[in-house]
Amino acid sequence: MPKHVDLVVVGAGIIGLATARQYLAEYPGASVLVLERESGLASHQTGRNSGVLHSGIYYAPGSMKAELAVAGRSSMVKFCAERGIDYEICGKVIVATRNDEIDRLRALRERADLNGLDAELIGASRLNEIEPHCFGIEALHVPSTGIVSYAAVCEALAAEIEDQSGVISYQTQVLAIEESREGARVSTSSGELVAGLVVNCAGLRCDQVAEMVGASEGNRIVPFRGEYFELVPDRRDLVRGLIYPVPDPSFPFLGVHLTRMVDGSVHAGPNAVLAMAREGYRWRDIEPKQIREHIGNQGLWRLARKYWRTGAGEIWRSVSKAAFVRALQRLVPEIGVEDLETSPAGVRAQAMDAEGELMDDFAITETSNSLHVLNAPSPAATASLEIAGKIVRMIEARSN
User: Fold this and answer.
1) DSSP assignment of 330-391, as one string?
2) Contacts of 383 (CB under 8 A, 6+ apart)
3) How many angstroms separate the CA atoms of 89 and 77, rounded?
4) 10 Å Cβ neighbour count for 85?
């Protein structure tokens, strides 16, 4: 553990690694240390997501999500192409299966225009040409959506960091941060050091790190577990690319969908249920401190009252495979219970603001010696290179 570094990045997920790499590109010869509490890269959100290269169609025009996802998809494709990382621009369809979804689907088409995206409204016959086993009365075809392994991207980022003499310290937990004119004194499980600047990309625990320097602004992470199945190998031909439902405006998640991965597997999910631990990948993963946070979180109680019906459906799909399958059959009627096998779950680090509202856009706060990425759920992996660029520009602005 060095005694002094120019930059400490907390978290070796894709945003932390992209930030460290970008900083070294802008400041050659700088000393950079990435601190990661786990034993390897991309252990949580980055390594457990569905690997989608998002187009940016869902996000409010003018938001950071829209701007950085649209640009980020292009920069991520370029990054992968230049480094030989497998990816595919397979496109996706957003499918209306009921008449009451048509207006929402067409609103998405208008949003695509505002975000500068190519998206085509298609009928059932064209949908069946693209996805022969999919049912829908109308759909939106988004050809720019793709798939990639973000874990492979992280390996490439880490290699470039180390090639530029950056250091990644695994199994190193941040215990405290104290700011002063001299910099930020960082206490870790491996020792102490002083950093010119700290960038907090701690994902599921970013609010806890931010609270060490009073930078959370009342925001807190509420962990939601996303549970997945995948199609058994001999039924993978039911899905060619990505098949999504029309988003339900009464719930801040996209709904169960089908995603072909770069390794050829087809994942189904995720649902969204409240996790009982920050790393609560199973129902039995329970963290007493997290339970206390949930109980005392008045915003979470308001959220539960507002979305109780939709939330109950998510829980039911969590405990009933048959219910999960019925949700998928709206999109691909041929899928049966026997066609699915369990796949690893993920946990989404969703921030809730001081007023008890789920934060929709990306959020970054800063103090005298630190920057904190406080909300970076999907499409943050797609946008990660652009988020890193934004963070480094914020750092540059501090010195002007």
Assistant:
1) TT-TT--GGGEEEEEEEEEEEEE-TTSPBP-S-EEEEETTEEEEEE--TTHHHHHHHHHHHH
2) 54, 65, 68, 69, 71, 72, 362
3) 9
4) 18
Reported for 104-111, long-range contacts at CB under 8 A and 24+ positions apart, including other chains, are 104/246, 104/247, 104/249, 105/138, 105/139, 105/140, 105/246, 108/57, 108/58, 108/140, 108/246, 108/247, 109/140, 111/57, 111/58, 111/60, 111/61
Q: Where along the chain do its domains lie? A: 4-46+151-219+360-398, 87-146+222-352
> What is the layout of strands, in order, in the sheet containing 52-53?
52-53, 146-148, 87-88
Are 16 and 10 contacting, i.e. CB atoms less than 8 angstroms apart?
yes
Pairing of strands 4-10, 92-96: unpaired
Residue with structure tokens 């959370």? 216
Q: What is the pTM of this model?
A: 0.96
Burial of 345 (0-12, 13-18, 19+ CB in 10 A): buried
Q: Which tokens is 82 given? A: 């230049």
Q: Which residues, listed in sequence order, are joined to residue 118 by a DSSP beta bridge?
A: none
Letter for the amino acid at 352?
Answer: M
| CATH number assigned to the domain with residue range 4-46+151-219+360-398, chosen from the 4 options 3.40.50.1010, 3.50.50.60, 3.30.540.10, 3.40.50.300 | 3.50.50.60
Tell me the C-alpha distance between 230 and 38, whole Å.
Answer: 26
State how far the Cα of 213 lies from the Cα of 184, in Å rounded to an integer. Answer: 10
pLDDT at 130: 98
| CATH value of 87-146+222-352 in 3.30.9.10, 3.40.50.10380, 3.40.50.1000, 3.40.109.10 | 3.30.9.10
Residue 252 has pLDDT above 70, yes or no: no
CA 396 – CA 373 distance, rounded (Å): 17
pLDDT digits (tens, 9 = 90+) for 356-367: 889 999 999 999
DSSP3 helix / strand / coil % (the chain, rounded to 5):
35, 25, 35
Per residue in 140-152, pLDDT tens? Answer: 999 999 999 999 9
C-alpha distances in Å from residue 94, one per residue of 70, 246, 257, 269: 17, 6, 9, 14
Assess contact for 384 and 76: CB atoms under 8 A. yes
